Structure formats: structure tokens, C-alpha cells
Amino acid sequence: MQNEREKTFHAPGMGRRSFLRSGAAAVATAAVTAAAGTLLTSREAEAANRIAPPRQISLLNTHTSERLTAEYWSRGRYQRDALRAINKLLRDHRTDTVYPIDPELLDTVHALQARIGTKTPLHVISGYRSPESNEFLREVGSGVARSSFHMRGMAIDIRAPGMDTRMIHRAALRLRAGGVGYYPQSDFVHMDVGPIRTW
């Protein structure tokens, strides 16, 4: 089984740059607002939502049975409380370590949920992974990268209940948002926001 660093893949579809460019105006608005340390007025918030509609993800941690549906982006900015809740849900369940999840990964998960057309929570097999957990998994199995993107909050392993994992894999590839790995024996798809590649 190949690890998350190998093999480049070039597939047609929406690239990460295209995805991010579509919300560039809203990101600029958020950056200016954050720098100014001000709150958006209701009119400004409505304008920001027209430029980039709110983004929501729905997840269930298969190890802790915790679930959440969070609108992590709205009113032209990432929502801190939602990000904190997501970070907690995606913590390393072995060490209980919470780590900041890259918002770009959340955008990719949001785009995947929209593409496959499900509002059912995606089942998370692995989110953040501490160096200790990563080394443990390297010792007991194969296909775990020494410098895994999981250790940087930039990767997630998921499945969608009731959906063929091959379909999830194909949808993830079409996003062209980073690395995509398919693990049919374990029935999950790996997604990260590193370089575009597949295994």
C-alpha cells in the first residue's frame, strides 16, 4: 500500500486554486475586518454572504461517537467557536490532543459534501494525529507516512454511510484539492491539502 506522499495525479475538474478564488472577495473582506478588529454590520454580513454563502460541514467521529454539524464560515469569515468545536471533534483520540485543523481542509470537506449531495455526517476515521500516534500506526501497519499531513491538521480519513466508497474517492479526485488516497479494505478515503497526488 502506498503512502500519502507518493504518486502525482492530474484529473479534470475544479482545482484548489479555483475553489479558493471563488471566495477570494469574501476572504479579502474577512481579512480587512479581522485586521480592523470590528464586527460586520448586518448589511455588510448580508453582502458577504451573497459573495460567499455560509459553509457547513457535518461529521461523526467513529472512535468517540461525537458528532457535530457546524457552520464554520459565515458573514465573510471563519467562525472561531465552530472551528474550536471542529478541532475538538477531530482531535487525536489516542492522546486526546486537540490541534488546529487547517480551514482549507474544512473547505475541501465542505466541497466534497456538496459534490456527493449528502447532509448525513461523514464518518471520520482519522483527523489530527499526534506524532506519537503516527509513529504507533507506522509500527503496526503500512501506508502511514513518516511526516503525515494528519500531524499538521491538514488531512482527514472519511467514509460516507450508505455510499460506495469508490464514489467518494472519485468525487474527492475531481476536487483536485490535494492528496487523495483510497483504502478499500478499510473502507475509507484519505483527503489532505498537500500537493495534488493519489494512491
Automatic annotation (TrEMBL):
One Gene Ontology term from the biological process aspect of the record: cell wall organization
Gene3D superfamilies tied to this protein: 3.30.1380.10
Pathway: Cell wall biogenesis; cell wall polysaccharide biosynthesis
Classification via CDD domains: Zn-DD-carboxypeptidase_like
SUPFAM superfamilies named among the record's database cross-references: Hedgehog/DD-peptidase
Cofactor(s) in the UniProt record: Zn(2+)
InterPro entries: MepK, TAT_signal, Zn_M74/Hedgehog-like
A single GO molecular function term of this UniProt record: metallopeptidase activity
Keywords: Cell wall biogenesis/degradation, Hydrolase, Metal-binding, Metalloprotease, Protease, Signal, Zinc
Family affiliation: Belongs to the peptidase M15 family.
Listed name of the protein: Murein endopeptidase K
Native species: Skermanella aerolata
Highest classification ranks of the organism: Bacteria, Pseudomonadati, Pseudomonadota, Alphaproteobacteria, Rhodospirillales
